[in-house]
Each structure stands twice: as structure tokens, then as C-alpha cells.
Amino acid sequence: MTAAARLPGTVLETRHLRLVQAIADTGSVTRAGDQLHLTQSAVSRQLAELEDRLGLRLFARVKKRLAITPAGEHLLDASRRILDDLVSAERELRARGGAAARWPLRVSTACHTCYHWLPPALRAFQKRHPDADLRIVLEATPDPIPPLLRGELELAIVHGAVRRRELAVEPLFDDEVVALVPPEHRLATRRHLESGDLHGATLLAFGSAGPDALWFRRTFLGRAVPRDLRAVPITEVMMELVKADAGIAIVHRWVAEPQIRSGAVVALRLTRGGLWKSWQAVHARSAQHVDALRDLAALIRQARIGAGQRRTPRAVNRHASARRVVVR
């Protein structure tokens, strides 16, 4: 007996799996035929043939609708797994077999804290687009727009308005920026702060220069002059300095949410309505894989929203009208 003869045979083909899915999803032979581009008689014939081969009833007619049987349910579950695996396998084979055809997708953001919420969207994108050679360009983080314009990036995630005709902007979500003080601080009982409240204060931020600091100075501080604006790149160190009353931290709310909930620090809104930073994904309008870049932006936009974050309306940047930062 040959090795081939010893292999267990099967009556199932991929067309059978698609047939079962279509009938289960539509509950009708006619609508299943429309979905599969087959006639009603062809669908009925294929179903009868499959049930005859298996010796099992997969569907039963109940009040003019086909209801799936327990055996059909079992086959339906298996068919969804198998067809999904086949699609993934084909994508991986194309990506591996045509490694030379992979296209670069270099991504950077205007703030290091973005890399905490970005990875889940990147993982989902890589599954959908295995032919993309996805890379994070950390060195472009302080200001990714110039590298994007030079063709060194395919996607930049920034805040503030972008006025370049050759660039397309995809709104993502809004991030609230708050001030953190210890519970015993003189400002801790305030409902919100205005720029004058920070005049002469020592401020702690993840960066003391660059577009992020410039945005804060222009959108909130205005004429107020802090005594010092210190860069503290490590969250844990910043929280300890706040607790020791060594400065007022200016951070995205979600960064300090565990300390806020525990009562170790107090979060104060900046202005009555809060100070919101609107994040956007930016890419060249002429990008070769523009549909994939839009797909990545959509995945980021659909990601889980954390504390102090809210989804941005697609059409309007609500916080860019009064004070606008222009990225050139």
C-alpha cells in the first residue's frame, strides 16, 4: 500500500465550505446563489450532493427558511477557520515568495508617548498587509513632517494643522493635556487652570524643546512665562517629582491615569473646556500605496480610546480655529 493510499480521504472542497457559509449567512438558497454567482438550482444541487457524500443533513427547511442543523453548525465553524487560514497562508506565501516586491512603510510620530497606543494598530495592519515592510523611525520622532516631505517616511503622526497641498491628512483622535500637582498643592482644589496660574512655576514635560513644547507655549502659555520648563523623559521619575512638589507636570492625561486614580497626584484641566491635542496621520497624496496608508489611519482611529482621549470628527478639527500651529 502506498503512502498516498494510506492518507484519509475527504469529500470536502473549498467550494463546499463557501456554499455552507453562504446558505448559513443568508438563510436562503436563492440569496446564497446571488452571493456565490450561481443559479438557485446549482446551489440546491451542490448542497444535495454534499449532504449525500457526508450522509448528513446540514440544513432543514423551517417556515420557508433554511435552518442549520447541529452537523451544519460544526461544518460552518470549521469552514470559517479553514477559509481564513487559507487566505492568510496565501498572503504570507505571496509576501515571502516576493520579498523583493515588499514595499517600505516607515512610520514616525511627533511624541514618544504615542508609541504606547500605536503598536496594536500596527499589528492589525501587518496581518492585513503582510507585503508592507513596516518600520518605526524613532530618530524622526521630534518632528516627522520634514522627513516625510523628503521621502524618508511614508506616514507621520502629528498634532496641529498641516498646510501642505502635497500632503493628505487623516484625523485620528483628541488627547487631553492636563497639569499634575500633589494633593496638598495650592492649586489642587481648582477646577481648572488658566495660563496665568503657571506664570513663574517650574514645569515638567517629556520635552522642553521641539514642536510639542512650541505647541504648548502657543496654545496655552501665551504671555505667561514659567520659571523653568524641564524635560523629564521618564514617566515614573516625573510622577515622583510631582509628588515631591518639585514642579507641575504637563502630560497627556492617560499617561498618569493610574496615579490620578490612586490619589497620588491631582489632574487639573487647562482652561474650562480642557486643552486638547488633535492627532492626525499625514501622508503624501501621491503615495504609491495610499489605500493601505488610509487603512492604517483607520485602524489607529478605531483603536481603544483611553482616559482623556476622544474620537475626532472626520471633517473638522475643532481646536485649530482659534490658535493654530502650522507645520511647514
Largest sheet: 11 strands, mixed
Q: Compute the average pLDDT.
A: 84
Low-confidence stretches: 1-7, 315-328
The outline comes out as: elongated
Radius of gyration: 28 Å
CATH class of the largest domain: Alpha Beta
Order of helices and strands: HHHHEEHEHEHEEEEEHEHEHEEHEE
Count every beta strand, where a strand is a DSSP E run of 2 or more residues. 15
Q: What is the fold-level CATH name, i.e. the topology of the largest domain?
A: D-Maltodextrin-Binding Protein, domain 2
CATH homologous group name of the largest domain: Periplasmic binding protein-like II
Range of strand content: 15-25%
The termini sit apart by 74 Å
Alpha-beta content class:
alpha/beta
| H/I helix tally | 11
Percentage of residues in helical conformation: 25-40%
Proper CATH architecture of the largest domain: 3-Layer(aba) Sandwich
Verbal overview:
The structure is a single chain. By secondary structure, the chain is α/β, with parallel strands linked by helices. It folds into 3 domains: 9-97, Orthogonal Bundle (Arc Repressor Mutant, subunit A), CATH 1.10.10.10; 104-173 and 281-308, Periplasmic binding protein-like II (D-Maltodextrin-Binding Protein, domain 2, 3-Layer(aba) Sandwich), CATH 3.40.190.10; 175-275, Periplasmic binding protein-like II (D-Maltodextrin-Binding Protein, domain 2). It is 37% helix and 23% strand. It has 11 helices and 15 strands. It has helices at residues 3-6, 14-26, 29-36, 40-54, 70-97, 119-128, 145-149, 211-221, 235-243, 257-262, 290-302, and strands at 59-62, 65-68, 103-109, 132-136, 155-159, 161-162, 167-181, 192-193, 202-205, 228-231, 248-252, 266-270, 275-284, 309-311, 326-327. The strands form 3 sheets. Strands 3, 4, 5, 7, 8, 9, 10, 11, 12, 13 and 14 form an 11-stranded mixed beta sheet that branches. The chain has a two-stranded antiparallel sheet with strand order 1-2. Strand 3, helix 6 and strand 4 form a beta-alpha-beta unit. Helix 2 (14-26) crosses helix 3, helix 3 crosses helix 4 (40-54) and helix 6 crosses helix 11 (290-302). The chain is elongated and about 85 Å long. The model is unreliable at 1-7 and 315-328 (pLDDT under 50).
